[in-house]
Structure formats: structure tokens, C-alpha cells
């Protein structure tokens, strides 16, 4: 069994410490991946209410007799009720609305017919189905800082000289700044972050520096659960 000796700068040399130094690389996109906006939540709540009170009863009463498992005219509204935002359901809803609007649904030989007001409410309510599912934020793209922003951030957070970022290529002014990050650029950023680790952390066996204490707090006691201690540090950094 391997015994891990816990020194004053244990977490500074751990993976947690290294990740802490590059958190700001993804910080600019945190707001974009945050929780749902209040207006979106309200739209979804309204759509759920309308679907339950207007769409479902209309379809059940006037449509599923013909458009359930046998899917007359290729429209299966029974499956659309179960998964109203599904890819096939979207097509079914469009066809249903078009037919209800011109009075082709229900057909002339049906036993029940909706009133004009019911038709209007159904058509209007189907238009809200798109709000039942959370808005697709699109592909997640890690945002990066410019060379100057990165150097200034390192200097502000860790007190290192901004020239540590000089190995990064200059931004191409003529083509504009692209804030996506390539694999090669990731390696450059991480390489600089590792240099910062070596500069700001105390040598093994020495007392922790002020930077270490600010980021990681007191070193864990001998015999403590290292996974729990690492999670504490990670949660504290995430809150900051």
C-alpha cells in the first residue's frame, strides 16, 4: 500500500492545485451555461398548463380515434402526446394544425366536432409546445482570454510577472480575435499554468506561501480523507 505524505503544500502540487490555476480559462463562459432565465421558466410553466388543459383534451376527444396506433394519413398524435417535443411529433403537430384550421380534421364522418373556439384554442396552444423543452444552448465552446488578458490575470491572481505569457503567439489583428481554443493553444495555456505553479508554490517541506493559503487553506491533517479534502477545496474555488 502506497503511503502519501501530506506536507504543507500537498494540494498545491496536486491536480486540484493545477486546475485552480486555469479556472479562469473557462470563466468567461460560466454565465452562458448558467440556469434558466425566469422568463423561460414562466413560458415553460404556461406551455405545460396549456398543453394539459387545451391540447391533450382536444386530441383525446377528437383525434386519437383515427390518429393513434394506426396513424391515419401518417399522423400519430398518440405518440405526439407522449413526447410532444420529439422530432416526429413536430411534424405531426404541423399537419394537425393545418388540417384543423381548414376543417379537414375531424373528417365529415366523425361522430364529434369541435366548436370554432375549440379549434382556435387548439391551434394557438400547439404553438406553445416549443416551450415545453429547455432551450438548446448549442454546442459548448471553451472561451479563451487574449494573450494580454491572460498575462494580466496571472499577474493579478498570483503576483507573477506578466511576461510569463510571452510564449503565446500574438493575436492576428487583421482577422479579428477568435475566442475559441484549439488543442495546441490548450497545451500552451496549460504549460504556462504549470510554470506559475512552480513559481508560486513553496518547495516541498517548506511552509506554504500566502498564495497557497489563500487558495487551499490549511493543509489537511495527517490521516484525513484526501478525497473529501480535495472536494472541499474544489467547492471553495468554484464559489469564488
UniProtKB/TrEMBL annotation:
It holds the Pfam family PSD3. Residues 143-201 form the DUF1587 domain. InterPro entries: DUF1587. This is DUF1587 domain-containing protein. It comes from marine metagenome. The lineage of its organism: unclassified sequences, metagenomes, ecological metagenomes.
